[in-house]
Design brief:
This protein is of the alpha/beta class. It is 29% helix and 28% strand. Strands 3, 4, 5, 6, 7, 14 and 15 form a 7-stranded mixed sheet that branches. The radius of gyration is 20 Å and the shape is globular. It starts with 5 loop residues before the first strand and ends with a strand. This is NADPH2:quinone reductase.
Length: 329
């Protein structure tokens, strides 16, 4: 495969709103030891991209400053010390950054094959979301069959993935969403009960069900104290984002008396080794389900690379159900 010297990309011109995303041209990156270069066909759009754009989520050292944490395409080049991948292989991958471009590099251990029967557009929606849900709900949160699970933002990319996986592995799934349409989408994906948070109190509903054994939350703010009230004894709360802020006053006596666990994580700062272990687990436990069509990404909309600002505006409007992707080539 002959590689060009320059590529189309979208960069963050300065911290700010969607309008600061600007088309540009950058040199094509080169894969280092243990890395592959991907010719990107589709890139997923995620909340961390918007946080980076706003100036509140810096790229790790050595990572591209371009946004974009997941992509699909073909392997364009293989760096030293890489095995298992060849030029031309169809691939989807978790990226350290740089997905909003025609080419991106990533550790080979963070790449996964495109599931059987799935096109590249759908495959671009998998890495960031499935890495996040699998590591937080099943590895960190320890969700088991028969347990009651509550996910906030049930119609988001994270939410639609969490509902499907938790339901498949035997949990009783509850989800919150902000419209009747979004609640219907959650129920269709396997939620036992979809809660319209504008009209109903999820605390009252979960307590009526005996409490949640596990809650996955990306809202934060006053949801943190409400989540604690919603947990069953020995329940676990896993935080993955703070759309309403990370600070709250919390009575930890309840945590002690009811033996609650409050934890959380962010994916991007974790070590390459930690992400590789998540990838291995996904390949063994989840990728067969995707290949069999038992679960699938929920698609909302697509935008051209140069329209990344419109994609961000769509995401931040919270009108979407499922994943938003950029069409690169």
């Amino acid at each position: 495969m002959t590689l060009p010297e320059m590529m189309r990309a979208v960069e963050i011109s300065e911290p700010g709103g969607p309008e600061v995303l600007k088309p540009t041209h950058r040199p094509v990156p080169q894969p280092g030891p243990g890395e592959i270069l991907i010719r990107v066909r589709w890139a997923g759009v995620n909340r961390p991209d918007a946080l980076q754009r706003a100036g509140s989520y810096k790229a790790p050292p050595q990572a591209s400053d371009l946004p974009g944490l997941e992509a699909s395409g073909e392997v364009a080049a293989v760096g030293p010390e890489v095995s298992g991948w060849s030029v031309g292989d169809a691939v989807c991958a978790l990226l350290p950054g740089g997905g909003y471009a025609e080419f991106a590099v990533t550790p080979a251990a963070h790449a996964l094959p495109v599931p059987d029967g799935m096109d590249l557009r759908e495959a671009a929606c998998l890495p960031e979301t499935f890495f996040t849900v699998w590591s937080n709900v099943f590895q960190r949160g320890g969700l088991k069959a028969g347990e009651t699970f509550l996910v906030h933002g049930g119609s988001s990319g994270i939410g639609t993935t969490a509902i499907q996986l938790a339901s498949h592995f035997g949990a009783r799934v509850f989800a919150t969403a902000g419209t009747a349409e979004k609640c219907a989408a959650c129920a269709k994906l396997g939620a036992k009960r979809a809660i319209n948070y504008r009209e109903e109190d999820f605390v009252e509903i979960l307590r009526g069900e005996g409490g949640a054994n596990l809650i996955l939350d990306m809202v934060g703010g006053d949801y943190i104290t409400r989540n604690v009230k919603s947990l069953a004894d020995d329940g676990r709360l896993v935080m993955i984002a703070f759309l309403q802020g990370p600070k709250v006053e919390l009575n930890f006596a309840q945590v002690m008396l009811r033996r609650l666990t409050i934890t959380g994580s962010t994916l991007r700062p974790q070590s390459d080794f930690a992400k590789a272990r998540i990838a291995d687990s996904l390949r063994d436990r989840v990728w067969p389900l995707l290949s069999n069509g038992e679960i699938a990404p929920v698609m909302d909309s697509e935008f051209a690379l140069e329209d990344a600002a419109k994609a961000h505006a769509r995401m931040e409007s919270s009108g979407h159900v499922g994943k938003i992707v950029l069409r690169i080539s």
